[in-house]
Amino acid sequence: DVRTLVLGIETTCDETAAAVVERLSDGSGKILSNIVRSQTEEHARFGGVVPEIAARAHVDLLDGIVDSAMKESGVSFAQLSAVAAAAGPGLIGGVIVGLTTAKAIAMVHDTPLIAVNHLEAHALTPRLTCALAFPYCLFLASGGHTQIVAVTGVGKYVRLGTTVDDAMGEAFDKVAKMLALPYPGGPEVERAAQGGDPRRFAFPRPMLGRADANFSLSGLKTAVRNEAARIDPLEPQDISDLCASFQAAVLESTADRLSVGLKLFHEQFGPPRALVAAGGVAANQAIRGALQDVAAKAQTTLIIPPPALCTDNGAMIAWAGIERLAMGLVDTMDAAPRARWLL
Ligand code: KG4
Ligand code: ZN
C-alpha cells in the first residue's frame, strides 16, 4: 500500500485528541478524522487546568478517542505508516499517557513511532491546510506559550521572541478570573470587551518600542487587578470597560512586538512567505484584525488556520508526524516524555 497515513495523539494539556491524516500524492494533507475531547468541564470548578485531574482524564478517555478516530477514518492499524504522539512540552502526566499509548500501538502493529514536539506541530499546521512554502514567520499564542518563530524548514526553527513572564492566553485567563468571568477566560474577555470602552483605562503597553521582539504580560495583568480593586461595586459595564481596555493594550503591544519580529525575520532570512498565527489566542477576532494590519505593513500575507486547528488537536500532531516521516525522522521506543522542550 503506497498511501501515507499517520495517527496523531495529543494529550499535553486538557484536550484528549486523536486524528488520522493522509498525505496525498501532491504533498498536501487530508484529515480523515479529528476527534477532540476538551476537559473544560472537569477543570471548570477549579478555574484552571489541574494537572493530576488532566492526567487521569487522559487515561480514561484516550483509548476511546483513538478508537473513534480510527473508525471514522476507515483506516486500519495495519495500514498506518506511523503513529505520532506529542512527547512534550506540557503537563508531564498527560504527555506520558499519550506517548505510552503511541508506543504500545507502534509495538503491537510494528509501525514506526514519531515523538512530536507540540510546538513544532503548531508551527507546521498551516502547511496542512494550504500550500505554504518555507520560510514563514509564526506567531504562537496559547495558554502556555507566546512566541515569534522563524520556520525555515521541517525541524528548523529560530525563536525570534518570547514572553518574559506570563503567556498571552494565561493573561486573558487570569484577567477573566479576577473579574469573576467563567473559565476558560479568553473567549469571555473577548465577549465582555465587545460592549466596553477601550479608552476608559490607560493600561500600560508592555515592551512598546523595544528593539527585541519579546513580550511581557504580567505587569499589564497587575494593572488590571489594581484598577478593578478600586471600583466597588464592580458593575457589568466596568467589567466590559476593563476587558476592552486590557484587550486594547494587548493588541497594541502585540502589533508592536510582531512588527519588530518581522523586521528581525527579514534581516536574517529575507522576506517571509507569510505571517502565520496559531494557538488559542489566534481565535480572538480583535487580535486577528490587528495581525492583518501588521502583515499588510510588512507586505506579507496573514494566514490563520481554522479555529479548530489553532487550538490543540490530533491532526496537527499527525501532520507533524507526516512531515517528519518524509524527512526520515522516526524515533525509537526509548523516546522520552518531556515537560519542557524548546523548539
Ligand atoms: O492553544 P490552546 O487551545 O491550548 C493551549 O494553551 O495549548 O489555547 C488556549 C488558550 C487559553 O488561555 C484561552 O483563554 C485562550 O487560548 N483563548 C483566547 C480566546 N480563545 C481562547 N484568548 C483570547 N481570546 C479568545 N477568543
Ligand atoms: Zn497548544
TrEMBL record:
| Reactions mediated catalytically | L-threonylcarbamoyladenylate + adenosine(37) in tRNA = N(6)-L-threonylcarbamoyladenosine(37) in tRNA + AMP + H(+)
Query: What domain of life?
Result: Bacteria
Q: Give the E.C. number(s).
A: 2.3.1.234
For the keyword Acyltransferase, the answer is yes
Instruction: One GO cellular component term, please give it.
Output: cytoplasm
Where does it reside?
Cytoplasm
Q: Which cofactor does it need?
A: Fe(2+)
- Keywords attached to this entry: Acyltransferase, Cytoplasm, Iron, Metal-binding, Transferase, tRNA processing
UniProt-listed PANTHER family: TRNA N6-ADENOSINE THREONYLCARBAMOYLTRANSFERASE (PTHR11735), TRNA N6-ADENOSINE THREONYLCARBAMOYLTRANSFERASE, MITOCHONDRIAL (PTHR11735:SF6)
What is the name listed in the Swiss-Prot or TrEMBL entry for this protein? tRNA N6-adenosine threonylcarbamoyltransferase
Q: In which organism is this protein found?
A: Bradyrhizobium lablabi
